[in-house]
Design a protein that fits this description.
mainly alpha, 14 helices, globular
């Protein structure tokens, strides 16, 4: 893999850390800026909305620019707004910086996915995608806990400064290493969403929704149902992150085979895993064992679907990357909402069953789409 892919992955690591780190900084922000803790939740909601809107919007607006320029602009904006966020004492300003950071993050990821695919051979898009998404899984393992530690001992602003500092070498790497014209601008005029691409995007949203539905509530699930002490929660989150990293890494090679049967089989095992987790949550050993397994399977299936989408959307890789980024974030936003509703209507087992239901829906849709494709092929022949 070209070294520049790892620099892009470093930027994705910084951006994913920024996206998730607020979960541990909310009380400090509320106390410092004089707002309520529920009000700080607007920062997370604003970021999610910016991610959903930003990816396709930036892809279209940047269609006339070379990709290196768009990568530089989005990453520079992302870095700058974190500096502003670290300096401000006004909650409204901080909220605006979060929305702008999400817009820049989404646009950068969309362009990075397309650039990564363009910098490797046509049959290596899966491995290139795994390098970028590996930055997200590493953020779960290292970035988010480190942000929480910085916030605890140096204040919440230090976490914002850290994200800005980590983004700087990635910015310099893009400037030096991404070809200026080789990747060319995005093309959107001839772009049309095929049935296969639409199905892949929906499947990606469903699987990512299932992932974040349970991951968001993993701490209360493990403490209130499994009975683990609060001190074990960081360990379990790290295990989930390690499993996710392993899943993305392994899936990168298999995704390039473009064999739908592989992802259907892995999706079936993922479904069984969520059901098993829901049924055995009260028992420590199976619960602890299933946390990294489900992390690995979830990110393996999710990253494979995104790789398939990049293969399907060759007319405009940038816009395809934007739609894929938006789909992932629709799932990331909807999953926790559905999990919260399940908790309010029952117990902490609820999110696990919702995750199983979302993956089950994805499997049904995937099987139906595959059957439709086979029937269409038979009619042609």
């Amino acid at each position: 893999m070209p070294f520049v892919l790892y620099l892009l992955g470093l930027a994705v690591f910084a951006q994913a850390t920024s996206e998730f780190m607020l979960s541990g900084l909310g009380p400090d922000i509320a106390r410092d800026l004089g707002v309520s803790i529920p009000t700080t939740g607007w920062l997370t909601s604003g970021f999610a909305l910016g991610m959903i809107v930003g990816a396709p919007a930036v892809a279209v607006l940047g269609a006339r620019w070379p990709r290196r320029r768009t990568l530089l602009v989005t990453l520079t904006v992302f870095l700058a707004v974190h500096v502003v966020g670290a300096l401000t004492s006004d909650f409204t300003v901080l909220l605006v910086t979060r929305v702008l950071a999400a817009l820049a993050n989404a646009g950068f990821l969309a362009l990075a996915l397309a650039t990564a695919a363009a910098l490797v051979s046509p049959d290596a898009k899966g491995r290139a995608t795994s390098v970028l998404l590996g930055g997200t899984t590493l953020a779960c393992i290292v970035g988010v806990p480190a942000g929480a530690v910085l916030g605890r001992y140096l204040g919440w602003r230090s976490a914002f400064w850290a994200v800005a500092i980590i983004s700087l070498p990635a910015l310099l790497g893009v400037l030096r290493s991404v070809p200026n014209r080789a990747t060319g601008p995005a093309t959107v005029g001839r772009f049309s969403v095929t049935a296969r691409l639409a199905v892949l995007l929906l499947l990606g949203a469903l699987v990512n929704g299932a992932t974040f539905c349970s991951f968001t509530y993993l701490s209360p699930i493990l403490t209130d149902v499994t009975g683990l002490g609060a001190g074990w929660v960081p360990v379990m989150l790290a295990l989930f992150g390690l499993g996710s990293f392993a899943g993305v890494t392994v899936a990168g090679r298999y995704a390039d085979r473009r064999d739908d049967r592989l992802v259907l089989v892995a999706g079936g095992i993922l479904l069984l895993g969520w059901c098993a987790f829901a049924l055995t949550t009260a028992y420590v050993v199976p619960a602890v064992a299933l946390v990294p397994v489900q992390g690995a399977l979830s990110f393996a299936v999710g990253s494979t679907l995104i790789s398939y989408a990049l293969y399907a959307g060759t007319e405009s890789p940038v816009l395809t990357g934007g739609l894929a980024t938006a789909a992932l974030n629709v799932g990331a936003a909807a999953g926790p909402l559905l999990g919260g509703l399940a908790i309010r209507s029952g117990t902490f087992h609820g999110p696990l069953w919702v995750s199983a239901g979302l993956v089950g829906a994805a499997l049904c849709l995937g099987c139906a789409a595959q059957g439709w494709t086979r029937r269409a092929a038979r009619r042609v022949t």
